[in-house]
């Protein structure tokens, strides 16, 4: 897909979680991983730690929004969850591009009428394989989740799947794009995260995940896909129009 023309597009990162502090020096926090994933593509980034209650003033404060992963569940009663869902519905109504990863994938689905729950099938950790429509039949990406989207919103089209995760990626026309796996995670970070947080996993699963975290992933192709989506020349509505349409987006 290749890099598109540098247009200096401002992307707001809605940070919903943090990497373990002892991994920051080597790998950076979650927002830094997205800056690295999309580096050299003409984007300018600003981070809003929404998990601390720090939100943008307007959905138009950036030309596109990216929602990070998190160790929290989208169905948990944290005080910043409902305001984030409201912000996403308003951005969606305004036509400001939205990209969600893992938790971001899940909260977008929940905000727009889908359902997320702790998956009865357990955890997906390590490098997993996905069929990505129109891109790769065998994409390799790092996963780390137990929660899943189990009912997609009516507006969403399934564009990636795996035997373990039915709704691995969703596209909402030109308005939103989301992935359950982590294109921003390198195998090296996945291995270090496994050492830091792997005690929460079944021993056999942790061992299998460790073995999978070798070799190349399909991150470059997914980064191209995200760039192409963000560059689609979205034309936002006026604030009154966006607020009126937001009322019709059912949670």
From TrEMBL:
CDD domains: GATase1_1 (cd01741). It holds the Pfam family GATase. Residues 83-187 form the Glutamine amidotransferase domain. GO terms for cellular component: cytosol. GO terms for molecular function: transferase activity. Keywords: Glutamine amidotransferase, Transferase. PROSITE patterns: GATASE_TYPE_1. This is Glutamine amidotransferase class-I. It comes from Xanthobacter autotrophicus (strain ATCC BAA-1158 / Py2).
